[in-house]
């Protein structure tokens, strides 16, 4: 069954005036992504998501169409390998790989629909009927002193027992934000923190020293993704697990980190790391090196669905039935119309878990009226 069409749809959902939010390095004034549509010769459609700036992704489309259109959908991963081998000068860190990621997710969605199987059956089988999530919030805003506490209170009110908050403005600020989050969430909640690579090793150590008393689940992206030796040093020293990976592309990037044992929790984002194609290789690497995985998700409902299928198929090695810390899917609780509106039935957690779709493909249905509202023309 051959691919007859690949299309990219740029999506942009501006945030209300004064409602920008984000991380230690910058704030987002809109949520944006690229919807990928792939059509097979029998009319079967598959959908994916490509990370990054939509206008840049669109520029890659004619080039990639020349390889993907006419290819057999079952052989799509060999097409990707050929593209990378022939155009190795392009590298893999950036929108080029994000585009391949979106196409791969769409191809797996279409293949599942063609065969009448959910994606998790195509990538290893269903290990979990429901996957655990953590609420990703506690964002930095234009007025972080005013806006932080209400965000944490809302996550507690909504019943989230595992959350992640943004830190990284300074070690002193980190200590204050973590202490407040712990007070509101209580002693039994799991709290993770995200620095978004804003620190050097010395600053990361200072921050970790200040917040360790609050039993933090992991410190995410404490350093720049290129600082492999820094991650190695920090992981050896830190009393808190080190997590990273949302800015790493393909299994090759992750291998550089894992070979140095510089990470405790790997966080591939399927919409940029290479889709399920590379995601499976990264998961195998985690099993072989006894490292945990928690996929990064910060885009549309399509990317969330992909993350759910990915974790559902993930082996529990080295555990059997007693899983001390099940793999977590990130569930962004910021204002995000692209997460809530693009799917006719958005995936939402109940009691900290999302049910794994069993319908063919990703098990989602696109709301095309919503796509029309947010499509960039």
From TrEMBL:
One annotated GO biological process: carbohydrate catabolic process
InterPro entries cross-referenced by the UniProt entry: Enolase-like_C_sf, Enolase-like_N, Enolase_C-like, Mandel_Rmase/mucon_lact_enz_CS, Mandelate_racemase_C, Mandelate_racemase_N_dom, RHMD-like
Residue intervals of the Mandelate racemase/muconate lactonizing enzyme C-terminal domain: 145-241
Transport keyword on record: no
Keywords: Magnesium, Metal-binding
Molecular functions (GO terms): hydro-lyase activity; magnesium ion binding
PROSITE patterns: MR_MLE_2 (PS00909)
Organism domain of life: Bacteria
SUPFAM superfamilies: Enolase C-terminal domain-like (SSF51604), Enolase N-terminal domain-like (SSF54826)
Cofactor: Mg(2+)
Protein name: Mandelate racemase/muconate lactonizing enzyme family protein
Source species of the chain: Limobrevibacterium gyesilva
Source taxonomy: Bacteria, Pseudomonadati, Pseudomonadota, Alphaproteobacteria, Acetobacterales
């Amino acid at each position: 069954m051959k691919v007859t069409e690949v299309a990219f749809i740029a999506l942009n959902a501006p945030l209300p005036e004064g409602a920008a939010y984000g991380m230690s390095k910058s704030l987002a004034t809109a949520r944006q992504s690229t919807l990928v549509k792939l059509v097979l010769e029998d009319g079967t459609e598959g959908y994916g998501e490509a990370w990054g700036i939509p206008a840049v992704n669109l520029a890659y489309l004619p080039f990639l169409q020349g390889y993907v259109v006419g290819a057999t959908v079952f052989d799509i991963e060999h097409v990707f390998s050929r593209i990378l081998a022939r155009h190795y000068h392009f590298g893999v860190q950036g929108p080029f790989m994000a585009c391949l990621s979106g196409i791969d997710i769409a191809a797996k969605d279409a293949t599942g629909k063609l065969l009448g199987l959910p994606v998790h059956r195509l990538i290893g089988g269903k290990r979990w009927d429901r996957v655990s999530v953590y609420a990703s919030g506690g964002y930095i805003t234009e007025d972080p002193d005013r806006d932080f506490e209400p965000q944490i209170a809302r996550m507690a009110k909504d019943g989230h027992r595992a959350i992640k908050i943004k830190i990284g403005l300074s070690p002193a600020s980190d200590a204050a934000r973590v202490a407040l989050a712990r007070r509101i969430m209580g002693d039994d909640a799991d709290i993770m923190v995200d620095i978004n690579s804003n620190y050097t090793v010395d600053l990361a150590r200072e921050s970790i020293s200040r917040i360790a008393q609050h039993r933090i689940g992991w410190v995410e992206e404490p350093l720049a993704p290129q600082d492999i030796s820094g991650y190695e040093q920090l992981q050896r020293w830190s009393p808190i697990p080190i997590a990273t990976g949302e800015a790493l592309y393909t299994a090759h990037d992750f291998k550089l980190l894992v070979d140095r044992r510089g990470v405790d929790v790997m966080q591939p984002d399927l919409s940029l790391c290479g889709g399920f194609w590379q995601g499976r290789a990264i998961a195998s690497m985690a099993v072989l090196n006894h490292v945990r995985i928690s996929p990064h998700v910060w885009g549309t409902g399509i990317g969330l669905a992909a993350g759910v299928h990915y974790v559902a198929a993930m082996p529990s090695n080295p555990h059997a039935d007693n899983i001390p810390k099940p793999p977590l899917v990130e569930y962004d609780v910021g204002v995000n119309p692209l997460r809530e509106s693009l799917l006719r039935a958005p995936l939402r957690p109940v009691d900290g878990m999302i049910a794994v779709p069993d319908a063919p493909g990703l098990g989602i249905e696109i709301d095309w009226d919503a796509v029309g509202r947010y499509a960039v023309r």
